[in-house]
Specification:
The chain has helices at residues 19-24, 49-64, 66-72, and strands at 5-9, 12-16, 34-38, 41-45. The chain has 74 residues and is of the alpha+beta class. The chain has a single domain, classed as Pemi-like Protein 1, Chain: D. The strands form two sheets. Strands 1-2 form a two-stranded antiparallel ribbon. β1 and β2 form a beta hairpin. The radius of gyration is 19 Å and the shape is elongated.
């Protein structure tokens, strides 16, 4: 577990993430993180949960309509 500290940055509040944690999760300045509600608290992730849902739906369609997509690719 890593403790993160909220800090005042101009008129906003920012989150300070230790350098070791950034390296561990392969994050760098400018990356986007998504804060989502989770059971018992919150989840901070570099993956867009909406995009993950869309990709899951796309994979299901591609599996179901494989032959049609193959024909369209010709």
């Amino acid at each position: 577990m890593v403790a993160l500290k909220l800090r005042l940055i101009g008129n906003s509040t920012g989150l300070t993430i230790p350098k070791e944690t950034l390296a561990q999760f392969n994050l760098k300045e400018g990356d986007t993180l998504y804060l989502t509600p989770a059971p018992g608290g919150m989840r901070l992730t570099p993956y867009d949960p909406d995009f993950a849902d869309q990709m899951e739906a796309a994979r299901a369609i591609m599996k179901k309509r494989r032959n049609a997509l193959r024909e369209l690719a010709k």
